[in-house]
Amino acid sequence: MQRIDFFAHVLTPRYLAELDRRNIQHHPTPPASILYDAEERIAVMDEYAPGDTSVLTMMGPNLESLVDVSLAEKLAQTGNDELAELLQAYPDHFIAAAASLPMDDMTMAQKECRRVVEQLGLKGIQIVSNYRGEYPDSERLYPLYEMMEAYDLPVWIHPVFANGPMRAPFDIESILGWPMDTSMAMFYIARSEVFERFPRLKFVVHHCGAFIPAFYPRIKAQFFDDPPYLEHPVAPEVGRRAEYLKNFYADTAIYGHCTDTLELGLRFFGPEQLVYATDFPSMTPEELPNTIYSVEQLPVQADTKEAIFRGNALRLLHING
């Protein structure tokens, strides 16, 4: 069976070269060649996860953390053009891609969104969990959400570093801080008017919804059900929004033998909203079979596993199987 890795990462050569030409420090160390060498990447996929095809997303840092908005627009265009070229050059291994946008300027972001969907054929956009402390519930993003709902294409949310005193060394924060920021983004979106204004909008979150499935009862009780110690009561419309935390699509990119965690996510989001993903190549190649094995070991019927491995992705991407 062909599996669709719904949240895989790439850094494209011209995009990287443009950053380097401008002496922009984009990563603590030079990126591994597997991120930008398509042939090397495909060889690893074929060896460790034969049958996989990837949905490509640009690996961070996000543009807003690197450059001003005018340059962000140019870099986004360069990277998105290269994503489209990869889909054309390697259709058996790259089935779709999500675009990067210059998110500091909504007019520019909408213009690039329209271009990538209508001209390049990309299948959605990637945003991050916060923009310098501005979370994705911000009304500034509503025009973009309106576009994505009209296109009926997904919005991938990738975690980034949170602002403030919780900042920690990269290796700790990427393991613990990023799931926390994903959870924060989901919380803010659910508690806001986003799903009421855009009920058909589809967000895809990394790492099986991070902390939300495990802590949903606590989150609901503390922040949606009007605990008596709150100074101001929770408005009735906010109290109803706890269920919106179940509106997200979550992926299987956890690493290791993680069937128990995936089973929790499956029960929380439902079989139609769990998608296979590996976070490739942000792990050792040996981790790829572990994710496949963990999905295969879920105590569900074969048709549910097929939906997780590919059916849900095909539906979200509007691709005939």
Q: How do the strands and helices of this protein lay out in sequence?
A:
Blueprint: E1 3-10, H1 13-21, H2 38-48, E2 52-58, H3 69-89, E3 94-98, H4 106-120, E4 125-128, H5 142-151, E5 155-158, H6 170-191, H7 194-197, E6 203-205, H8 212-223, H9 236-239, E7 249-251, H10 259-269, E8 274-275, H11 287-296, H12 302-317
Parallel strand pairs: 1-2, 2-3, 4-5, 5-6, 6-7, 7-8
Helix pairs in contact: 1-3, 3-4, 4-5
Fold and architecture overview:
The protein has helices at 13-21, 38-48, 69-89, 106-120, 142-151, 170-191, 194-197, 212-223, 236-239, 259-269, 287-296, 302-317, and strands spanning 3-10, 52-58, 94-98, 125-128, 155-158, 203-205, 249-251, 274-275. The mean pLDDT is 94. With 321 residues, it is α/β, with parallel strands linked by helices. The chain is 45% helix and 11% strand. 41% of the residues are buried. Helix 1 (13-21) runs antiparallel to helix 3, helix 3 runs parallel beside helix 4 (106-120) and helix 4 (106-120) runs parallel beside helix 5. The radius of gyration is 19 Å and the shape is globular. The chain has 12 helices and 8 strands. The strands form 2 sheets. Strands 4-5-6-7-8 form a 5-stranded parallel beta sheet. Strands 1-2-3 form a 3-stranded parallel beta sheet.
Oligomer: single chain
By DSSP, the count of extended strands is 8
Helical proportion, percent range: 40-55%
The helix-strand sequence is EHHEHEHEHEHHEHHEHEHH
- Poorly predicted segments: none
Largest sheet: 5 strands, parallel
- Report the end-to-end length measured between terminal Cα atoms: 11 Å
